[in-house]
Amino acid sequence: MGWSPTSDKTHGSRWRVHDNGGGACILHPLFVSFLLCISFGVFYMFYLFSGSNLGYEISVGCQDDNEGSWGIGVFYGDSPFSLKPIEDMNIWDNRSAAWPVANPVLTCASVTDAGIPSNFVLDPFLYAKDDMLYMFFESKNPITRQGDIGVARSMDDGATWEHLGVALDKDWHLSHPYVFDYNGQIYMMPDGSRNGDLRLYRATEFPLKWKLEKIILGRPLVDAFIIQHEEKYWIFGSIRSRITCQHLEIWYSNSPFGPWTAHRKNPISGPLNGGRPFLYNGNLYRLAHDERVRVFKIEIFSVNNYKEVEVDLGMKNPTKGKNAWNGARSHHLNVHRLRTGKWLAVADGDRTLYGDVTRRRIVGCGLVVTAGSIIYVICWLLGFVKCLVTHNLKRKNPAYLVWERLKLRLRLNINPNTYTGKFIFALLVMISVMIMCVGFWYIYGGNGADKPYSVNSRFSQFTLLAMTYDARIWNLKMYVKHYSRCASVREIVVVWNKGKLPDLNDLDSTVPVRFRVEEQNSLNNRFRPDPLIKTKAVLELDDDIMMNCDDLERGFKIWRENPQRLVGFYPRLVTGPPPLMYRPEKHARKHNGYNMVLTGAAFVDHDVAFERYWGKEAEPGRNMVDEVFNCEDVLMNFLYANATVGGVSVEYVKPAWAIDTSKFSGVAISGNTQAHYRVRSQCLEKFSRLYGGLTDRKVEFRRRKDGWDL
């Protein structure tokens, strides 16, 4: 076997492999180039989604898990049927930059950061002792791939939680840690059904040390609980079948230690238990679940009969889909009455469904294989690749003649050396690379959720504020629909400067939208104090800027770590000597630094920023803003720099992409770029005289470890 390059006037240069046995394989240089492109594409996608490239440290915990990405949230209400998430209660935690505290309050990161690796947390049960709340929960150990029982403590009625450690760790999977009192002792009855029985543990040193007290039932009951009713003790649990656990079993005894007698109605049709049963207004309720928590009122309960009826729990379902921490499902709830008479509840939630990782990998691998297969077949039909079987195989295989006829029908008579041929081939390469990139996104890119970032294992929310008028309704509708789905957005406030107000029903929003109508059309209205804003953070974002939710979440995280700064997405650099000139971002890039961020997309502390802007000192600057109808963001930068003694007053976060939709609608305020820049240069000169310069406050790009300021 040998090889040699050949020349063909019709088909151009090819690489040919001769086979003396009668077969031949011909590879066109374009096909080889395609293979190289695919290789670079594969490398790029792997690099893009690798942890080191994103600036994250690879952790043993909080990895993609086929069972989900469970977390635990807190809810409050006047009754168990009026529960609202903690973010609606406006509870602040200054220690962890949570203004206000938002769900989830406990995640795998909370446990992993405490030194105990975890992939997710779920099945929370509350226990009150010594004016403190303890939460026991299942924690998925990524090393053993089993559930352990963790415990956390709260000293502020559930607003924040401190992870204490692992309360129970066995050689088998544990979950559903039901904790209760009996005769002055504290007991735990976890779900250890994979071990084939039901066990009772007693606390020897609460809450972290437990001792096996007794195997109370030799049946592998799933998600069981034990309660006292009419001088008897009752166990409710399900038997796991190969398909489902829809058969509920009830057992009763005179003591939690048995012996136990099966209820005469066993098995009872009903969903799995979904938490601790509770009494309210003299009625007993059982919590259950499928993809959501359900509640059943027990109407008949005796050794001979049992009946329950489903009632409305009253909790609103999440509206942000995968971006919500419990957007896909929730299967556990534990309610508890506080000393104040209010009700507290803890619930688990997940943004993905069971088997999500497997599905993503199957789809991703399928797309990668499909992309390669399609381009290979088309290249073969175009004549770029020829791989023929041997003459002996031709004679022995009757289907070969059929295949040859099909080839003649499918063969595309396109010369790869013409412009048309090259265009078609380039188009095919682009399509194939796109399909392959999508495939690798499925494999490495996660489930598609734009998740919030925690600070000190805490989450919070911000208010989104936009200023607009009636000519930009098209922008506003798209703006509200997109950004209301972002995980940390609590409310959208629209500062309405002029024109007829739109109907709120015309806006597709998952969060409240509030219009604030102004009497005067002024850019200063953007920073007017608003006592109705309930969050410390406000994202000032022009209604014609579209970027992805993850960019907003990154900016929010950086601002929470630096709340005294302006944190924005559009950097600018003001350099001397006078006369000062306003220049675009490329000037800042050229000089590797910035000292301004435009507040058309920036996070601010609404109390601090708005107070500064409407203070007496800023009055001359506000007057110029009204005079030129421009420069309100420039003024805010000078006010922040003037209030910061040394150090950094602005912080930049690079968005993955950003689109100015006003270019499509034709209603941009600064349509004439050169005139816009001249006005801003005048503002720079005047504000420098009024409030001091910015030229000595340069901040370099690429100074943060996370790489978000490249």
From TrEMBL:
Q: Where are the transmembrane segments?
A: 26-49, 362-385, 423-444
Q: Which GO terms describe its cellular component?
A: membrane
Kindly give the Pfam families that the UniProt entry links to this protein: GINT1_N, Glyco_transf_64
Q: Which cofactor does it need?
A: Mn(2+)
> What broad taxonomic lineage does this protein's source fall under?
Eukaryota, Viridiplantae, Streptophyta, Embryophyta, Tracheophyta
UniProt xrefs under SUPFAM superfamilies? Arabinanase/levansucrase/invertase (SSF75005), Nucleotide-diphospho-sugar transferases (SSF53448)
Regarding the membrane, this protein is recorded as: Multi-pass membrane protein
Q: Which family does it belong to?
A: Belongs to the glycosyltransferase 64 family.
Keyword terms, alphabetized = Disulfide bond, Glycosyltransferase, Hydrolase, Manganese, Membrane, Metal-binding, Transferase, Transmembrane, Transmembrane helix
Q: Which domain of life is it from?
A: Eukaryota
User: Ranges for the Glycosyl transferase domain?
Assistant: 462-701
Q: Where is the signal peptide?
A: none
Protein name per its UniProtKB record:
Glucosamine inositolphosphorylceramide transferase 1
What species is this protein from? Helianthus annuus (Common sunflower)
Pathway recorded for this protein: Lipid metabolism; Sphingolipid metabolism
Q: Which GO terms describe its molecular function?
A: glycosyltransferase activity; hydrolase activity; metal ion binding
Q: What compartments host this protein?
A: Membrane
Every copy of the Glucosamine inositolphosphorylceramide transferase 1 N-terminal domain together lies at 62-350
